Amino acid sequence: MNSEPQQPEPSRSRGISVVSTLDRNEAQPGDRRRVPKFGNGKNAGVELDPQPSDSSEDPLNWPQWKKELAFGSLLLGTAVIGALKTMLVTVTSALVVELGTSYMGTTALTGLPLIVGAFAGLHSVALSHMTGKRLLYLISSVMLLLSAVWTMHIFGSYSQFMISRVLQGFAWGTFESLVLLSVKDMYFVHERSSRITIYNITNIIFTWGSPMVGGFVSQRVDGFRNQIMIINIIQAFSVVLLIFGTPETSYKRASDRSNVGGHFRSGTVTTVSAGTSSGFKSYLSSLHPMSPKGTSKFELSRALYPLRALSAPSTILTFFLTAPLVATAFGTAHLLSMLFAPTPVMALPTQLGLMFTGPLVGGLIFYTIVSVTSHMLSRRGSRSSSFRNLGAAIPGILLGFAGILAFGLYVEGTLRPDASMANSIFDLYTQGQDFNKKIASFAFGLTVSGAVVLNYAGAMHIKATAASVKEADALEGGHRALQDLLTGIFIIGVPLWVQGGGDNMFPGLKDTSIALAVVQIVIASTVAAALWVKGEDIRRLDGRVLGTQGGEEGIVMQRWKTKDSFMEG
């Protein structure tokens, strides 16, 4: 008889999502080997990865409605965070006047929270192993709501405004670093792609699209506080959904005794029902802030694992591949008000918001193109995963280079004072008369589109080359933290570099754009080439730095000895 697991007969039980089979000839009395479990329905014959336990408390075995409710609540929190990151881009010049500070001081209201959020994210990942994710979600979401409400009621105090924004940064860094980990807790590998795509699209829409709404409502009575009020209303719903719709997603599957020997009787077909519920009380009991199944004792090696990932070669190289362009895109976004709110353009918040049409549309279009193309190539099995992912980086690099140069040269060329245009008494020239906001938005959109594509390529490269899921999660977390750190610095620094200490900022814009474009394309192309040529060597170094062995999921701290160095985990 064929020893391959056969497709099981369809079960009549309702809500069945997991099926396990064992060939009669393979099973022996007392045999306690782990038997693979398979999906059914449209996923019949698909071996489930990771393998779920037999417990209904296992997030992999939750009913579909429970998974989607939890995922939806996390998406809503993600949307709020995206809106908060670009909340001030259309009103920065107005805040300079209201808070009595410099333009750089106003951009620091977003830059510094991003820097704080980068460190908070690393801390929350380590802490989640001891407390679970649900408690951190609840604390961070409530902190985000309260600090945003405080921001709405601050008038004229820069210090209070900064403190409230830093608290928001700490909260959003804690929250967003755990979302994709929860997605992997709840969904099997073959189910994750669509959810991660939805997550990324949500990020693009609310990060680059919310300024369009924010600029419009900021021209009404109470100004930018209307934005915060709308965000607070959405966040209040998010908190309610997190409380009642998001149980703990962490689960210690290895310690679940029901997973040992539940499928080892000879000639049996065992099913795990994920559609039944033990009632409303049982559901409420799963909403405890800290679930014993999702927490573990403190382990120094596990706590240090996210920090070790910061120094892994893949983390550092992927950071240099993606971060300069992503940081430049955010820096440019926080430059718009300084460039276009004063004369000669005198753009209102609504007009500044409409300039995000290019980034929003371009980001969505190019993300769709690169993700669909990558998916099609992976299904055909053409070339290696490294080829697909690093190949996707090429259009991102070129789009970013073209966008940075086009934006800087176009704005400088159309807005700089030019006396030669008015050298005749018959000439009537007005500074900025040739400037077109749609063209500037298109150029800005190229920059953001390149950043979206490049960030996608970097994330997919880490996922494809990591030795295990845990290693990939750690590398992605380290990459995100370093990228947020540089992004916060660029948000503060780009306006400063453009101003250059002079009254006329347009020559500074031209010089800064050329410098950033050249640095971006040189660094990104060099790193992409290094990852392509030395990919296997880099992967082995990742294992040494992280202290992992082979492709196993566990975290095993090792000694690293070379001729010139000694590292002990």
UniProtKB/TrEMBL annotation:
Cellular compartments per GO CC: plasma membrane
Domain of life per record: Eukaryota
Membrane topology per record: Multi-pass membrane protein
Location in or out of the cell: Membrane
Compositional bias segments (type: Basic and acidic residues): 23-33
Molecular-function GO term, any one: transmembrane transporter activity
Pfam families: MFS_1 (PF07690)
Bias (Polar residues) ranges: 1-10
Broad class of the protein's primary localization: membrane
Transmembrane segments: 74-97, 103-123, 135-156, 162-184, 196-217, 229-247, 316-340, 352-370, 390-411, 439-460, 481-500, 512-533
InterPro entries hit by this protein: MFS (IPR011701), MFS_trans_sf (IPR036259)
Chain intervals for the UniProt region annotation (Disordered): 1-59
Keywords of the record: Membrane, Transmembrane, Transmembrane helix
Entry protein name: MFS general substrate transporter
Originating species: Venustampulla echinocandica
